[in-house]
Structure formats: C-alpha cells, structure tokens
Amino acid sequence: MSKITISETRDYFLKEGEKFFYLADTCWSAFTNPTYDEWEYYLEYRRMQGFNVLQINMLPQHDRSPSENYIDPFEVLPDGGWDFSRRNEKYFDRAEKMVEMAVEHGFTPALVVLWCNYVKGTWGSKINPSRIIPRDKLEEYVSYVAERYGKYNPIFIISGDTNFETEDSVDYYNSALETVKKISSGSLTTMHLSGGLWEIPETLVKSPNYDFYMYQSGHVKEHQYLSYELAQRFYNMPVKRPVVNGEPCYEGIGSIGSYGKYGRFGSLDVRKAVWQSLLSGAKAGAAYGAHGVWSWQKEYEYPMEYAEVHGAPYHWATALRFPGAFDVAFAKWVFEKYDLFDIKPANDKLLNKTTEIRVAEGKDKMLVYTPFSTKIKLKIDELYNKWEGIDLESRRIFKPVLEKTENFLEIKMAGFNNDLLIIGSKP
C-alpha cells in the first residue's frame, strides 16, 4: 500500500514517484449503508472507470439515506446521544473491512474524521447536540481512528462541511490535525469546507500538519462561478499547497435554494465545474458525486426535509451509472495523456469579455475550456504549432480553425453545441 505524497512544486500529487491525479468519488455513507456485496460491485465499477480515491465519512452521515445495515458507532444513551467512552467495535470492524476491500481494489480511502455535526460550535452541531463529541473525548477518538486506519495509508479529511465560525470549532480541528499527524505522519491531511468558503483561520493555514487545500464549489446554480473563483483564491494562498475541488455539484442533485426553478444538475454542469476548477488553479484533481451514491439510497422513503432541499436521490445503482462519472474520469485521462501537471492559470491571455472561458498554460501547452461554442481570442506571444479540440460531451476530436493576426490568435467557432477543450502544443 503506497502513500500519496506532494510534488516538489507543491501543486500536485505523486504516488510511487509517478504523477498522481486525484480522482475521487463521493460515498460519504459507505460505512453505514451498503452490504459487502453492494460495496464489491461498486468498487469494481468505479475502478473500471478510473477512479482512484474514495471520500467516506468515518462516522454516520447526518443526511444519509435509510438503511437496514445501520449500526451506531458508540453505545446509545437513554436520551439518544452516544457514550463516546464506549465504542461499538462492530461498527469500526465493518468500516475497516470496507476500507480493506477498497484498498485491495486500488483505491486510496479519504476518511472524514470530524463532520461538522460532531463538533462543538459549528452550524451542524445544532442537528443533534447530544452527539457532539465532548472535548475531553476528542483526542481519544481521533487517536483511535488514526491508529486503526493509518496502516491503510489513507488521506485524513479532518473536517466535514465546516465554516470555522467559532473558536471551539477551530480548537477541535486544530487538535485533530495535530493528533492525526502525530500518529499517522505519512498520511496526507486536508479539510472539507462548507460550500463557498475560502477564509480559513490563520492558525490552520500556517499549520505544518495541513497538507493540501480542498474546497467545495457546491450545489447552488447561481453560485457555479465558485468553481473557478475558489480555485484562484486557493491557488494564491500565502502557503502553497495542492488544490482540489472536493465537492463540485453532484450529478442528479437539485440546486439548493432553487430546485423548483433550475431542477437538477446534469453531466454538462459537472464537466463545467471540473474543467473550470482544473484550469483555474485546482489542478491536483477533482471529486465527483452522484445523487444517490453519496447517501446510498435504496428502496426506502428519503427524509422529506432533505428531499425538499435538493430532490429525492436516485437508487444508488442507477446513480452509479450516471454519464458524468465517465466525463470526470476522461478529465483525468486527458491530464495524464497530455502531461498537464505543470499548467498554471492564464486567463490574462483571454481577450473575450467573459470569465466562464478558462485558460491555462504550461511549459509547452496551452489549454482553453469553453462551456459554449464561440470564437475565442487569445493574446499569444509564443508559437503553438499544433492545435486539437475535444467535444467533451461526445469526446470527438476535431481540428480547430485558426486565424493569426499581429495582435492575437482567433480560434473560430466550432460546429458543436457543447462544451469544448482546445489544446495547443509547442514544437
């Protein structure tokens, strides 16, 4: 079981010395919902697609789907809370078995240690206050997780959906970071943030225990610009680290706050969020989520309070086959095929008056992503002698029509009504 490490340039990952594109599927509810047979089927399918990381909540996801396989991780108290001094080893045995299966299939587990509803002083702490981990039990729990699962060389995602709104929450997460690194020093760490958040407490930003940035561009239709805006913000943070969009819009989920107006996100929305992230500074990789897989929905009635927010989830086996998963896996293939790990944001080269088109440039390549077909004007001083286009919906390859003037390069509008990736190469 090899470890993931960080490149000398501190902007992408390595595994066994080779460049590693982080391609994660989001299955927060894996430890509470699927049977072992379902898990095996899921692992085989995602492995076939090219995924290499699985994002899983260590403790039960508060908005998971109902399941006959649910087990409480701690002894249940009369008031419904948990006795954090009495672990239910059956829960953690099951979790370890599932981690072991994932690793055997070639995946790196990315385990969320403290989703915000288990942490004092977070917005999520109001969901079930009786199940907040007491401060004096925090290090015992975190140490147990790090010791038991550290041998699988996981990534430890210290926080889940947090926004660091209180000193208590910062204290919890800072303590957890230190504890994990003390016990499992070779495991990379990150933070899963609430949608749109980029302002992280200085003590955490400067922490030597914090290995890479993970942001959430989220599930609000009107806020999809966050895919590239947050990528740029994290790319320019005072401490340089690899950047990953750890939660772009899930395929099949309804737009939060405007589900009745915009409906559900589709594969185009997913491609757009991922490519805009990658070309804007979050080039270390991306996560994907399918609405029904993350919550592991079966033939049960989904809780109404969540269904009204983002729509009832699809059955997990249906959501598993959504086409957007192949689209995101194709992004990984392109990155590896063209060796794009050295690219940097370059929207200063774009002369079109839009921020939706994203441009990046490496040592010998230039990339342009456009979510719609239009002519593109680029200010280019250096010679790119080979240009290729990819229709990202069909993955058809085409030769773009170019016109070079003294001041700019114009890429003519292509005959596709889809989002496109244009790649220029130097001799």
CATH topology of the largest domain: TIM Barrel
Give the uncertain stretches in residue-range form.
none
CATH superfamily of the largest domain: Glycosidases
DSSP helix fraction: 25-40%
Q: How many distinct domains? A: 2
The CATH C-level name of the largest domain is Alpha Beta
Number of helices: 11
Q: What is the global morphology?
A: globular
- Mean pLDDT, to the nearest integer, reads 96
Structure commentary:
With 427 residues, this protein is of the alpha/beta class. It has two domains: 4-338, Alpha-Beta Barrel (TIM Barrel); 346-425, Golgi alpha-mannosidase II (Immunoglobulin-like, Sandwich), CATH 2.60.40. Helix content is 28%, strand content 21%. It has helices spanning 36-49, 89-104, 135-149, 167-183, 202-205, 226-235, 259-262, 267-278, 304-310, 316-319, 324-338, and strands at residues 4-6, 13-15, 18-20, 22-26, 53-57, 74-76, 82-87, 108-115, 155-160, 189-190, 213-215, 243-245, 285-288, 344-345, 358-361, 365-370, 376-378, 386-391, 396-398, 402-404, 409-411, 420-425. Strands 10-9-8-5-4-13-12-11 form an eight-stranded parallel β-sheet. It has a six-stranded antiparallel β-sheet with strand order 14-15-16-22-18-19, covered by helices on one side. Strands 1-2-3 form a three-stranded antiparallel β-sheet, with no helix packed on it. Helix 3 packs parallel to helix 4 (167-183), helix 6 (226-235) runs parallel beside helix 8 and helix 8 packs parallel to helix 11. 47% of the residues are buried.
